[in-house]
Amino acid sequence: MNTVAQEPPASDRRPLRFVAFGIAVIIGISGLSARLFYLQVSQGVQYAQIATQNRTVQQAIPSTRGLIFDRNGRALVQNEPSFAVKIRPVDLLLSQRDAVVARLADLLRMDPADINASIDENPGSRFDLVRIAQDVPRDVADIIAEETLALPGVEVDVETQRQYLDGTLMSQILGYTGAIDAAGLAKLKDQGYLSDDLLGKAGVESTYEAQLRGTYGLETVERDASGRKLQVLETNKQPVAGDSLQLTIDTHEQQLALKALTWAMKTARLKSGVMIVVNPQTGEVLAMVSVPTYDSNKFATGISQKDFQKYAKDPNQPMLNHAINEQYPPGSTYKLVTGLGALSDGRITPTTVIGSHPYILIGATRFWDWNRAGFGPLNIRSGFAHSSDTFFYQVAQRLGITRLAFWAHQFGFGAPTGIDLPGEAAGIVPSDNWKQNTFGQPMFEGETVQAGIGQGYDVATPLQVLNAYCTVANGGRLLKPQVVRQVIGPDGNVVRPFKPILIRKLPTSTSNLVVMREAARQVVTSHHTYNLVELPIPVAGKTGTAQFGVKDAQGRLPFHEWFVAFVSKSGNFARPDSQLAVIGFAENANTVGNVATEMVKYYLQLHFKLKVDKRLPYLLRKGNFYGN
Amino acid sequence: MGVLRIEPARAQPWSPRSLAVIWRSFDLQLTIYALLLTSIGLAMAYSNSVESGGSLFARDSTFVRGLMWAGLSMLVFAIATAFDYAWLKTLAWPIYFTNLGLLAATLVVGSGVGGTARWIPILGLQFQFSELAKILMIVVLANFLASRQGKLDSIWSILGACMLVAPALVLVMLQPDLGTSLVFVAILGGMLFMSGASLRWLGLLAAAAVPASYVAWTYLLRDYQKARLLSFLDPSQDIQGAGYQLYQSQIAVGSGGLFGKGLTNGTQDSLNFLPVQTTDFVFAKLSEELGFLGAVVVFALFVALIWRILVCAWRSRDPFGLLMASGIASLVLFQVVVNVGMVIGVMPITGIPLPFVTHGGASLISLGLGLGILQSINMHQARAEW
Predict the structure, then answer these.
(1) Could B193 and A20 be called an inter-chain contact, meaning their C-beta atoms sit closer than 8 Å?
(2) Domain segments of chain A: what residues?
(3) Is residue B171 part of a domain?
């Protein structure tokens, strides 16, 4: 219809609007240029710095953890490279979490609940790695590494993990390493601990953490936005390997102690027991066994919730070292404190004779001797040998609670021994002061006499009891027990040599100590300990039967059994020359005879390689109260 | 209007002389500016391919795909240039409904990131029809407004244009693609303004947009969209969340300095701190590697390009041509300001590409089509006075 002759309607050009549009273009582009100039030219240097920080991170280079040897140089632990699977929570989207956890659980053969627990208990921030599994087999690690895209936030790392070579044998002493928790991280972050760090959590792994760990190095790493490490740009600081430990523990003695304890527990059907062997001259712990125990390797490889709950819910508390973490009434072993205290204070002399009776009366209450008959007139030696309760009630009355408490503290009761293991219990030494603070009233006389025989409020750890006897055995020196002999630097030089650590000298005379050693020997020679005297070695000791808990239907209390012994080197107990002290402790024993004596006897037979076997299994039947 | 409207210039046999006339009407400058911008985009794609470490000429490298899209775009440009734009007036309504159909199809079969539907696979390539929709919408609007010549003082012209845009806008919003819908609004505004529509009514409409945007903010936008929109105000508030892209983008830009780190030497992008570095955030990569000077060159090219487009608008005796060019000028200006503004932290993140430079097939082909139409407008009418 139209042709070019007929122009199409002329366009309605508005020059002003063109100008306006042009101005809009100029304003827009100028604004952008100005902002760009500000960012790139005015602020360029700052942004360049940020960009550099953005792509580089400084990250720690783990140091090689120190090793642990027994006193003969036998390795107890080694460092094993292992694959660990970790998650960076910030990269794991909530919507994908269930699928990723399910896939990981399938690959790692773990309970998804364990994985979720690890993520939720993440000690660091959401940007820090959380350890999910350790000790992952190579093929599984390879699969996970290949499935990176399907497993966002999941990383596979190589790290070294502890392998404890003797399984459960040393677990209470060595402890274990494990992943740091939130509380630990908060405390240790300033010392360079990382959110996915491993650290010693029990035993010497914990007490000597600072020495074993060494010093982490530092490197500058180029990373991409997802945090992947691309290359090491610079090593800022080389890591320094940790120091190694040489324990005082003798693996062989530990095995013997375990063997003796296991036999006694099996025969007497015990649930829990302790044996400790110490050199009284130095305070070196040669063996320390607490049964039941745990497997250090389970913790070191990342314990599952199921296994952990099994340990945690066990009424016999395998995670505790009963030798030092638990406290029990010391029973008659405590008569050492009462006796030496009274001698030293001059309340009795070695020849003072006191009549023992079926019971003594305090007010209207009868305090019975253990045999319910008494032993007639006794002096300190015979009273100790027979473990007469009425004799020691009267000695305690003469000494008084304040002095009894004083002497108990002198022996190291009521305070941790200071052994280089974590979580030591202090025990309780009752006194007027203590009872006033605890119950708001003074000690009654009946409680004082109970305290004199290690009952009532008295509680102590097996190590405290043993250490008290060591003090007598070595001539009055209360030493700090030690499980680490030497700290050895990575170059093999001894960083900290062994030396005995004296806590105090007992403020008593040599002759009083001789009396108590001879009294302890008389416990054995008087056949109070049955046939122990028949062993061809000069052993002295003291039994204890300590009631605890609630009475049964017949009005009888359950009881623990103790036997603490030391062997004279010369055979002459006038000399403080013992180099071997042993304590056996049977928790909730309730046997006809003293299990603890039998287990110590068996240990001594094994230790001295005796051909005779004087064990009396019939004493280990369950039965009635037999005596102190 | 007749269906056949063959103009004499076309009907005459092509003689050297008429070819020369036509060639003189071809805006070489416009084409060169566009080509230069496209080359800069290809340089960025090249840089990205080198940095990501793969083979530069691998079939699926960013660079190879960029070359392919650029080639296709030039082909489309050439065809559109040769094609008489007058046909577009005839075909306006079919084009309009095809456009809506494509947008609707995108909603149904499209795929995207995070529950969106933006791309449709064609021959193994992802194609974003909302980019093409921008150009097609300009064609339709130009036709409509040209037909309302003389009645542009009326509110009905303005409302009619709005009604035309509305269905496409809703379809794009549903994808959801906030950025493209804002581009529609910008095109509409720019074309109405240049058409000579009543400023009074336009002002009223703009005033009405304030409560409308409040309603949209409250009822239409999703939380992630709001977070992205607001994060530009203070990216450090939420560095690992919505502010992350902005923060990293500003670091990239700022660290480029005056001269840049050099092509392929950017660290922000090669280590992937910079998100979507060949598409929405290509300008951040460009500023990091080519510096302030490189960015200014790009700005200069855009200003020159828009100038040539406006020249085309001015020369066009046909209101359709004026409006078509105005629409494309508005599109380019708006996208440049919003995209660069986003990268340098003065505009919200909306996912709008930088024309020609952003690596993306649909955007490049659509622009090729748009510029082709402009060249057709230049060439298929008698020479303007300058």
Answers:
(1) yes
(2) 58-247, 251-294+322-620
(3) yes
Residues of B in contact with A33 (CB under 8 A): 295-296, 299
Give A542's pLDDT tier (boundaries 50, 70, 90). Answer: very high
How far does Cα A444 stand from its chain's mean position? Answer: 36
Nearest to B329 among A2, A21, A40 (CB): A21
Q: For an interface test with A, give the residue of B148, B250, B267 to mutate (most A CBs within 10 A).
A: B267
What is the predicted ipTM? 0.87
Question: What pLDDT score was predicted for residue B280?
Answer: 77
pLDDT in tens, A332-373: 999 999 999 999 999 999 999 999 999 999 999 999 999 889
Whether A25 and B303 lie within 8 Å, measured CB to CB: yes
Pairing type for strands A68-69 and A244-247 reads parallel
**Residue B235 lies in domain:** 26-39+68-379
Distance CA A185, CA B306 (A): 60
Chains A, B: CB contacts under 8 A, how many? 159
CATH topology of domain A58-247: Penicillin-binding protein 2a (Domain 2) (3.90.1310)
User: Is B282 exposed, middle or buried, given 0-12, 13-18 or 19+ CB atoms closer than 10 A?
Assistant: buried
Q: Which residues of B touch A16 (CB under 8 A)?
A: none
CB-CB under 8 Å, B194 with A14:
yes
Among the partner-chain residues B150, B252, B299, the one whose CB lies closest to the CB of A33 is: B299
Over the stretch A141-174, which tens digit does the pLDDT of each residue have? Answer: 888 888 877 787 888 888 888 999 998 999 999 9
| Sequence-separated (6 or more) residues with CB below 8 Å from residue B346 | A31, A32, A35, B232
The predicted-structure confidence for A238-292, as pLDDT tens digits, reads as follows 999 999 999 999 999 999 999 999 999 999 999 999 999 999 999 999 999 999 9
Contact at CB, A54 and B268, closer than 8 angstroms: yes
CA of B233: how far to CAs of A30, A381, B236, B285, B348, in Å?
20, 90, 9, 21, 8
DSSP letter, residue A177: E
Structure tokens at B228: 């992205």
- The pLDDT tens digits for A421-477 are 999 999 999 999 999 999 999 999 999 999 999 999 999 999 999 999 999 999 999
The CATH number, out of the four listed (3.30.750.24, 3.40.710.10, 3.40.50.2300, 3.40.50.1820), of the domain defined by the range A251-294+322-620:
3.40.710.10
State how many domains chain B has.
Answer: 1
Query: Would you call A293 helix, strand, or coil by DSSP?
Result: coil
Q: Which residue of A has its CA nearest to B271?
A: A224
Q: Is residue B57 part of a domain?
A: no
In A, minimum Cα distance to B283 occurs at A36
A306 at B interface, C-beta within 8 A: no
Per-residue model confidence (pLDDT) at position B273:
67
Nearest to B267 among A44, A45, A55 (CB): A55
Residue B15 pLDDT exceeds 90: no
